[in-house]
Design brief:
Blueprint: H1 6-17, H2 23-30, H3 34-46, E1 66-74, H4 79-87, E2 92-97, E3 104-110, H5 113-124, E4 129-136, H6 147-151
Helix pairs in contact: 2-3
Length: about 150
């Protein structure tokens, strides 16, 4: 899929405003047939337009009320192995490779400060990790969003 046409953008805008909307509700809202909406949704899904729905699950009721970002400095030659080891830590919920001074930015959830210390120790114990810098997240100020881009 090389891009989104006007119908795709309208559908994605409607979903960004109401992510739980059913196909029938979307069809009514956009004044399209249910089959058209269903076909477009299937095509968008197959093309990878939708990110993981896990992103919307709040970890707090699971017992993880705190979130932190861990800047990881690693040896470049073993970066892939470091990433594989990070993926084995359940509290690691996301990681990005970066250019610049930091090699990886790792998002973790934890039960409390002691738990964060334990998780940081696990990350530091990974062969190839040279050092970390950990910052406790104080709150999400701008949640993940694409609606402004879709409105453009």
């Amino acid at each position: 899929m090389d891009g989104y046409d006007a119908v795709d953008r309208a559908l994605l805008r409607a979903l960004s405003e109401d992510p739980r909307a059913t196909v029938v509700a979307l069809a009514e809202r956009l004044r399209m047939s249910r089959n058209t909406v269903q076909a477009r949704m299937s095509r968008l899904d197959a093309a990878g337009a939708f990110l993981s729905f896990e992103r919307s699950i709040d970890p707090t009721p699971l017992g993880y009320p705190l979130e932190a970002f861990v800047a990881v400095h690693a040896r470049q030659k073993v970066l892939a192995e470091v990433v594989r080891a990070l993926a084995e830590i359940p509290e690691v919920i996301q990681a990005h490779g970066l250019s610049g001074q930091i090699d990886l930015l790792v998002r973790v959830v934890c039960r409390d400060a002691h738990d964060l210390f334990r998780i940081d120790e696990e990350i530091l114990a990974i062969d190839g990790v040279e050092r970390t810098e950990t910052s406790l997240a104080m709150g999400e100020l701008i949640p993940f969003r694409l609606a402004p881009l879709l409105m453009r």
